[in-house]
Structures are given as C-alpha cells and as structure tokens.
Amino acid sequence: MGTATIRDVARQAKVSLKTVSRVINREGSVREETRARVQRAIEQLDYRPDLSARSLRSAKSYAIGLVYDNPNPYYIIAMQQGALTVCREMGFGLQIHPCNSRGPRLAEELRDLVRRSRLAGLVLAPPMSERVALLRELAAYNIPLVRVISAAEDPRDGFPCVFVDDRDAAYAITAYLIQLGHLRIGFLWGGKQHRSSPERYKGYEKALREYGVPLDEELVLEGDYSFDDGFRGARRLFGLAEPPTAIFGSNDEIAAGVLAAARAAGLHVPYDLSVAGFEDSPFSRHSWPSLTTSRQRTELISEHAARLLIAQIHGGNVANEGFSPELVVRGSTAPPRPRQ
Amino acid sequence: MGTATIRDVARQAKVSLKTVSRVINREGSVREETRARVQRAIEQLDYRPDLSARSLRSAKSYAIGLVYDNPNPYYIIAMQQGALTVCREMGFGLQIHPCNSRGPRLAEELRDLVRRSRLAGLVLAPPMSERVALLRELAAYNIPLVRVISAAEDPRDGFPCVFVDDRDAAYAITAYLIQLGHLRIGFLWGGKQHRSSPERYKGYEKALREYGVPLDEELVLEGDYSFDDGFRGARRLFGLAEPPTAIFGSNDEIAAGVLAAARAAGLHVPYDLSVAGFEDSPFSRHSWPSLTTSRQRTELISEHAARLLIAQIHGGNVANEGFSPELVVRGSTAPPRPRQ
DNA sequence: TTGCGTGTTGACAACGTTGTCATGAATGTC
DNA sequence: GACATTCATGACAACGTTGTCAACACGCAA
Known about the structure:
The structure is a homodimer.
Chain A: H1 6-13, H2 17-24, H3 32-45, H4 51-57, E1 63-68, H5 73-90, E2 93-98, H6 106-116, E3 122-124, H7 132-140, E4 145-150, E5 161-164, H8 166-180, E6 185-188, H9 196-210, E7 220-221, H10 227-238, E8 246-249, H11 252-264, E9 274-276, H12 282-286, E10 293-295, H13 298-313, E11 321-323, E12 326-328
Parallel strand pairs in A: 1-2, 1-3, 3-4, 4-5, 5-11, 6-7, 6-8, 8-9
Antiparallel strand pairs in A: 10-12
Chain A binds a DNA duplex through helix 2 and helix 4.
C-alpha cells in the first residue's frame, strides 16, 4: 500500500498541497467546508505527516531532548514518562540523552545533539540543570532549555525552570521526627554535586532551629547518594558516645544502607532507631520496615518542564513553577525509647 | 555562525556535493587524496549530516525504536543504555516507546510509530517480544524487528532474536539450594504473561527431578512479579503443615516480599529460611540480608539486539544469539537448620 | 464604476541530503 | 592503436513538507 503523503491527500480532497498543510497545522484561513473535506481525506488515507520532512523544511523542529545523568532509574523513568506524555500530546518527538555530568565538553556535546537531531530545546535534569556555566554556554548557543532544579523558591535568574522544594520537604521530615520526641537526629548528606543535598540539609537545620533542638555537628556526616555511604555513616553514628535515636538519610538508598547497618548492629527499627529516607522509591515501600520518606511527583514535574519548554519554543512567555514534595509516613519511624 | 551543510563542505573542499556524500557514507570510488581533503573540510567546519534530510531523501532511516512495557526501571534503563551505545556507535537515533502490552491495537500503534518517526526497525522487549500474533502482524507490515525473549534455545522460527536462558539460570539456583541441603523448596511464580515465568519454573522442576527431590505441588504458588505476591505467597507457605526451608522467588521483587514476610513471621533469614531471587536488581544487593539471585547482563543483551537489528537492516544475514544468566550467591541462603 | 480590504486558495521554491545517470580519465586487452 | 572496462567525479532530480507570494472572489465604501 505504501504510505500516504500530503500529495495523496490533496488529490483525494481536490485541493492544493498547501491547503492540506494549512489544515494539518491549524492555520486560519481555510473554509470550514474545505477543512472538513481535507479531514475526511486524511482519515480515509490514514495520513500522518512525516516528521523528517517537516522539520527539514521548517526551521522549527518537532522534537525535544531530555538530558540526564542520574543513577536512579526510578527517577529517570518517571522523567521520561512525563516528558513523553506531553510530547505525544503535542505531536513532538523525544530524544533521550544520558550523559556524563562531569564530561569535559558537555556544552559542545549537547549543542551537537541539538543540531544533529534538530531538537527544539532541552529539558535538563539535575545535576546538569544546576551548573550555571553550562546553562550560560547553552544559552550562548541559543538552545532553549528548561531546568528541573532543587530550590526553595523561583530563582528568577532568567533560565526557565521547574523547582522542587527539597528544603521544605526535609524540614517536614525533620519536624516530624522532632514531634515524635527525637532530640538527637543524625543527618547523612547526599552528593555535593547535587544542589538538592545542601537544600535538604538546610531544611534539616531549619527544623532543628525552629524547634529549639541543638545542632550537634557530630551527627552530621557527608557522603554520597549511595547505599554504602548510608551503611558506613550509620555505623559511625552508632559508635558515638551518645548515638542518635533517629537518622535522616538524604535519599532512600542512604536510608536503606542505614537499615542494613542497624540490622547488622542488632538494632531494632523503629524501636531502637527511627530511620527516614527521601524520594519514595519502590525500595522505601518494600524494605522492612517500610521507610518514612518524602514523595515528589516526578512524572508531573517532568510533564510540567516539557510543557514549559514547548510553550517557550512557541514563543509564549511562561512562568516558572514550584512543586513541594509531601511527607510519607511509614513503619521506620516511631517515638524514641524512653531513656533508661 | 549557523550550521554547516554538505554544500559548505563541498565548496571548501572544492568538490561536488555528491563526492562529500560519498565520503560521509564510506562509499567506494573516492580517491584517497580527495577523501582526505573532504575529511579536512568536514572537521574544519565541524559538519554533521542532518538526520532529517538524510532519512527524508534515502528511503533508509537512521533510527530504531525500543519498545517495552515492563514495570522494572532497572531493566528498562539497562535496555536503553545498551541500545544507545550501539546507536551512537552506528550513527543511529533511538526512539523509546513504552506501551501497553495488552493494548488492543498494538500492531497498528507500532506501525504508526515506525512510519511517523521513520524507524528502520524495532527492538522488542518482553512481553511484546513473545506475542507471536503481534510479531506476525508487524512482519506483515514489513517492519524489521529483533526480539529479546526467554528461551532455552534458538527458536528458529524466522523471527530474529536474542534469547536468555532463564530455565538454565533457574536450574542453577535450585540446584544450588539442593546442594546446600534443602529438600523442601518453595517456588513463587511470576506473571503468566511473561514467557520467562514458565521457563523459570521449568528450570526449578528440572533441578528437582535431576537431583531426585520430590516435587510437592503444595510448595508451588502462582502470582505476579510483585512484592505483594511474594509477601502473600510466603505467608501461605509458612502456614503449611510442613513448610519449606527455602523459597525461590521468580524475581527479586517477589523475593523482597518473601524477606518482609519472613521478618513479619519472626523467621531469621538465612538460618530459619533461605531465600533466592532472580535478576540482580539493586534491591537484591541492598536488602538485608542481600539476596542470592541470578544476574543477566541486560545491557549487553540489549546491545546485541540493537546490533542484530541494524545488521538485518543493512541486509546482513545474522545469527541469533543466546545469553545465560549467572548465579550470584549472597547472604540470603544457607544450609537448612538441622531437624529437631 | 473604481478601489480597497479581507478571506481563501494555489504555484512554486526551498530545506539538506542521496539516488540515478552521465561524463571524462585512466587502465587493461587484443 | 582501437576498444572495452573500470574508476572518479559531477549535474540534476527527488524525498515530503512548509514559507513566500500572488491570484482570485467577494463585499463594501467612495
């Protein structure tokens, strides 16, 4: 049968190529009757416009890129899903681009990606989204972009973004632990290359301050967003003269490491130790006990970022938008044991 | 600066468009000296061929699709990564396409995808890869495809594939448990829509048979590839008059559910109960205790599938290929407690 | 009647690339 | 030396679409 082209549609509807093009692109100036005739022909022939031809001819392109370097598959899949939803809705293509955030020529790499695949713009996930130098370079290449970043408020720095209030979410978790009665709460940092790490720490700090709980630097350990650092960090905290009664891991993987270390040390979670994570990964639901954590609607965030990007490409003047993760209480937290 | 086109390269190298095209596509019949001159011009101008124009003009396309409907993000990310590696190497684009494997008009959906995005072919992940009716429809649409399937041997049914020997891997796990001394080994099925499920069961069965361990149907429960079914299944097994001393969950999620159920029942893994999973997901490394499981090199498998597909598109006559997962022994398995 | 604005339509070129075919030069064969 | 064969190269059309511009029909005011 072959594939129907705009030419076949035009012939069938007895109009010119251009008129069909107008109908497809919802341009004005087509009589209702003509439009209907063309529509019928399109359906009869099951015609679909050819993306290559389209983006070749119009300087515009009909695809965006999703750029990430994040070892967390749940996060990435959710980001992809959100972006895809919007792309399908808007008739766009999506080009995924995992990359190395520490790569030496990242800006050039992304420029080449945009050129080669004729992308209309990029959605940047953390940590690329937080490297201002990179953003500036991309802006110099005239590449439209939308960032997903961790921030307590709209940065208003000219780069459009969707911002996630990690600080507030970490505040909520810490406040919850304090309300349970915990006064010594350990904090395990995530990787410094992610802006979410200091944000989460700030939330922790703020809650302690506001509730008048002293901040003991002994209880705060640096590390990475990894199981192993959670395990190691927890072991160090257990060895303190006055160990914490609760540990807040900066993400679920860290918290999983804490759970494992607690098991190894013979501590019973949550009775001997409360543990909280961050991210609401499936792990947090399936661990034992299941983890108290913070849920961000990654898919929605990504949808929003894609929408923002496409609106920007269409020349719209669109506002940034913020999301606040919500506290999810599960079985890994409880009031501390009464002092003996 | 704008983007350099083949025309600019031709001017700079003082040759015709066609000659540049020949150099790019590694066609024969270009003098070494000319080729070098063109290459230099390409590098000076940092020229990259435009994918849209290319695929518009040549009937050939320079992108393949990856089709999946699998709730396991680790698996999907690995599949994507493998396919991307090959695509970058070969100068192809990759279109990801998550879809609903039970959708009513899947074949049409995929045909439209291929047409719209001008895909040269598809890599199908399970369970789409196992639905023969779908394969036939796609073949009728002349869509080149490569499947990733679960099979003990090359099916030789005309549809190219990469096959993973789940049966053998399940055999290895079961045999290992038997060698530890287990005689009552529970088996929790995965979802029936995945061909890997019966394959894994067959491996379990075969090991019991070969080692002369009686197969007790009471110990075999159906379910899905989910944490909850693992939890429920384990609870039922614990309630038997003569409960199992080991449980083999058809994947790591099921095994995670078993771990949780064991915790809830006060059973100490691995001393009171051995647990084995399948897949080597990060969960299996981070659970407590970490899970004995089976590792498949998903990224390699996907790479191979993509290579097979591209070779097929190029008209090569390529052989199917098999992969065997390998046994990974961790802390969740041990010899059974001596009978009291 | 003329002139003008508006709404609808089509002819044609162009996007950047590759396929087809033609051309001329170099080489081999008798 | 004549002719066939191969090699290297280029001119040109074509892929399917959209942008530009012109043309036409219509209604309305002068």
